[in-house]
Design a protein that fits this description.
mainly alpha; 268 residues; single chain; 4-stranded antiparallel β-sheet; 2 domains; 4 strands; 9 helices
Length: 268
């Protein structure tokens, strides 16, 4: 069996002679690689092991098979020694991180979806709230509206501020149902005005029901214009539709009969 002298490309000092069995051992120990030089007596020069196919096949396949056999054992040992406290990085965690599927990214995705859903619901639900608010103001003015239309005295309707406010709410409702979100700042101002006036009115009349209805209706509208989470939007929907729905119901049952229509400004 031939014997070989070897050295590294960076050093001039050689070692050997080694037969193929000894070279296999050195490969297993990591002291011989395909870049290691061996002395070719026929050519009288140092040649990398990688260029001698016969020698390479003789010493490296054994090393590769040893590594393949050792890999499962090493993996099993690593698995059995995995800390119970959750320390270290799991392969599954690394894969999830590579796919942006970690606990943090899932939380951000859920938050983004919640925000998108809230934004999607806002115009429609706000439109419904404003329709109910408009009904609560327009229904008490029904006789005034009928007289103005019958006598074609449309300018006389401008003398009733709460009638104008009801028309304003109706226009805002139409814009919102058309997804015109630019009116949000105006809606917020309107909600605060309605909330303040309504709570004062309920307090002046000594009616807790009115206070609650105006407070919920105004707060619900305001909250719906700023909600950035689905849970917040759902709360705003319950408050806004519930409060303004209660006011519309009271108006239908003539709770505000002759109250709004009695507030008149004689301009026209």
């Amino acid at each position: 069996m031939p014997e070989y002298y070897i050295r590294t490309p960076e050093q001039d000092e050689s070692r050997g002679p080694f037969d193929q069995s000894r070279l296999k051992t050195l490969v297993d120990a990591g002291q011989v690689t395909e870049n290691t030089l061996y002395y070719d007596e026929e050519k009288e020069e140092w040649i990398p092991v990688a260029l001698n196919e016969e020698l390479k096949q003789a010493i490296f396949p054994v090393a590769n098979s040893l590594k393949l056999r050792a890999a499962p054992d090493a993996a099993a040992e690593t698995s059995s020694k995995k800390p119970k406290g959750g320390g270290g990085i799991e392969v599954e965690d690394m894969l999830k991180a590579a796919e942006a599927d970690t606990k943090e990214t899932r939380h951000l995705k859920q938050r983004q979806k919640s925000f998108e859903k809230a934004v999607e619901l806002a115009p429609i639900t706000l439109g419904i709230m404003m329709i109910l608010s408009a009904l609560a103001l327009l229904i008490p003015h029904h006789p005034v509206i009928v007289d103005g239309v019958t006598e074609t005295a449309y300018t006389s309707l401008l003398n009733y501020p709460f009638l104008m406010l009801g028309i304003f709410d109706l226009v805002m409702a139409i814009l919102l149902l058309l997804s015109v979100t630019d009116v949000y700042p105006v809606i917020r101002g309107r909600s605060m005005l309605g909330l303040g006036f309504g709570v004062y009115l309920g307090w002046a009349l000594g009616d807790p029901t009115l206070i609650m209805a105006f407070a919920l209706g105004g707060a619900g509208i305001f909250l719906a214009t700023i909600a950035q989470r689905l849970s917040t939007m759902l709360l705003a929907i319950i408050m806004g539709i519930g409060g303004n729905g209660a006011l519309a119901y009271l108006a239908i049952n003539e709770r505000f009969a002759e109250f709004y229509s009695s507030i008149k400004i004689n301009i026209f």
